[in-house]
What we know:
The structure holds two protein chains of two kinds. Chain A is α/β, with parallel strands linked by helices. Chain A is 36% helix and 25% strand. Chain A is built from nine helices and ten strands. In chain A, the strands form two sheets. In chain A, strands 6-7-8-3-9-10 form a six-stranded mixed sheet, with helices on both faces. In chain A, strands 2-1-4-5 form a four-stranded antiparallel sheet, covered by helices on one side. The model of chain A has no long low-confidence stretch (mean pLDDT 91). Chain B has three domains: 192 residues, MetI-like fold (Orthogonal Bundle); 144 residues, Periplasmic binding protein-like II (D-Maltodextrin-Binding Protein, domain 2), CATH 3.40.190; 96 residues, Periplasmic binding protein-like II (D-Maltodextrin-Binding Protein, domain 2, 3-Layer(aba) Sandwich), CATH 3.40.190. Helix content of chain B is 55%, strand content 13%. In chain B, helix 5 links the parallel strand 7 and strand 8. Chain B is elongated, with a radius of gyration of 28 Å. Chain B starts with a helix and ends in a 19-residue tail after the last helix. The chains are: A alpha/beta, B alpha/beta. Chains A and B meet through helix 2, helix 3 and helix 5 of A and helix 17 and helix 18 of B.
Amino acid sequence: MSEPIVEVSNLRKSYGDVTVLKGVGFSVEQGDLVSIIGPSGCGKSTLLRCLNALETLDSGTIRMAGVTLERSEGERRLDPRFHDFAHELRQRVGMVFQQFNLFPNKTILENVTLAPLVVNKEPREVAEENALRQLEKVGLAGFAKRYPAQLSGGQQQRAAIARALAMNPKVMLYDEPTSALDPMLVDEVLSVMKALDAEGMTQIVVTHEIRFARDASDYIIYMEQGEIVEISDEDEIFTSPKDERTRRFLHRFI
Amino acid sequence: MKRFSLLCLIAAILCTPLLFSDLRAADPAGDKDSSELKWAAAVDSNAPFAFYDAHNHLTGFEFEIITGIARHMTRDPKFIQNSWDGLIPGLGRGLYDCVICGIEITAEKGQEVLFTDPYYITFEQLVVAKGTPPVSSLAELSGRKIGTLEQTAALRMLEETPNVVVKSYAEEINAYNDVCNGRLYGVLLDFPIAKYYAGPNPALEFTGPPFGKITYGIAVSRSRPELAKQINAALGEMVKSGELRDILSRWGLWTPTMAKALKQQADPSLPDTEYKAFAAQFEQEGGIIARLKKYFVYWPVILQGCILTLEISILSMVLAIVVGFLLALMRVYGPFPLKPIAILYIEIVRGTPLLVQLLILFYGLPYIGIKLTPFLAGMLGLGLNYAAYEAENYRAGLLAIPKGQMEAARALGMTHRQGLVHVVVPQAFRMVLPPVTNDFISLLKDSSLVSAVTLIDLTGAYTRIATQTFDYFGTGLLIAAIYLLIGLPFVRLTGWLEKRLSTDRRTPEPKPSFWLGLGA
């Protein structure tokens, strides 16, 4: 078996007195689609934000796409190179937000080409050609010249996925990508993610879409109160959860 | 960031000539090749001494005298404007060769400067409202309110007269107006001023005998007695040839006093054409058209005032935007020392009056060796003051951009700086556009304060015209209308920009054209 592309161990994070992550660890193989589920406030969004260093971890190790973020317990000062590593890591990891966070003053095409132009200094023609390919992939070929406000929620989220893909990420992170969407629009986003899975993209999804988690995931991580309670096969976790807490959370879906 | 450094560069380039003009003015005059005769005066509302006429040309009897003197000395006269208070100190610093500005020869002033022979001898003239009983001595003014100008011989004479209530004015025309309005019993001022500012007014009349004796002399530096000698020689020739009498006659200032002093004939050698031309401006003609025609004569002054007002407003606004933007970044994102510095700057500048700041920049800084040109002082004062307000605008704009925008930028691999430049700032810019235009309109109006640092902007033009036409009312309305007019295009420009940059376009529509997009 090859080395896992994502490896997290003993990850801790607290805000003041509130401990949000109590030593979390898991790993993801290249090409896997992993769903993280759990009740609100269980720390799953914080975990995801720590993974690409939008939040700074308190201690633990994150090894992802060849970059290591590490901080030992009790280390008061952050390693001065931490931010360089974090910056390097973010260039290899794509992130999709619950609220899309598209740039409202830019067209969809400009949204998608901005980072390749600014960060990678790609020539405009190359960036635009690539952007159009990504937009086609998410089914927005004809929308390049529109502004975000002129698109539906589902279209906006697909544009956000295209924007992340334009940076050629090794791993995609999704923070509740369908929570802000009309139920009717959820599927168009999920099907894009399924298509990416089929292409072999490694994806970690924090979601409330239990049905999607069941259908599309390679396995599911169940979290509660800052801890990983159970990591199980997507069918197993529904039919025979190992932990009582998982059963309680999932009983409506079983 | 690139764009902003470009703006800075443009601002710097625009300012360069101003800096240089300052350096030139600071060049010591004396030791240079002396083909020029640099003379200084304060020429605002200074008829008939030296003043700008309706066509913005320098004129006046002193102007003609100094031009004549220079000709006799075979030197080119070069005029240097200064404020009244700065005339003598400027002489000490070597900014010019001499001062001719109705300066009375006194023993006191003789300590500071060297005076040439007098070029004009006159007296104080009392002016009262028409129909007032005649006054034959100053003592009769006991208990009366009498007006005069600051720092004049007349002021001294009035203060030595018991029980006279003295009101001192900065502009002679306001003093005479207050006699018409009944606020003053009379005004005591040098005869040439009375002749030009009260003489043409039918509501006023001269009364009493000539009071006192005043001699005007040209002031030169005490260290240059040879220059004083040369000027005296030139002046002597002008007296002998009758040139001086001709000049004074044309200006209506050839008086028996003068004739006696020079031992020449008492009757004027030429008709008083210059006085007549000046007095004609006072004649009230009926009807709006006639009035407008009268103002129209002053269009060069008004135009120059407009240009200066626009120049100084636009340059100040550029400065305010650049500095304000930096302050906002310092305040919102700056690390320890920068943040409190920005806050301190903003609080101090917003908490003190703009006029005080301008006066400190222009009149205060020379005490610590920094001498700014009036233009530079005005521009810096306005720009640095408005920077504080701009900073608060931008801060609000920056804080109003949702956090998710910066997060998205960083998640895409941008640095914090790249996120600011490419994502946050452009959005904040759109958001603050309306308040910034608002500020520009208000800066345009506040720029009128620069007339306090001797600049002739639109407000300066107002004072100049009003003091020459005796008409603060009509001129005031005209100038107010011009301010309104030059502000309008900017209001409309923003309306158009706002529409063009609007971020919430649900349906694609053609970009609004500049004129059709107005006012909607």
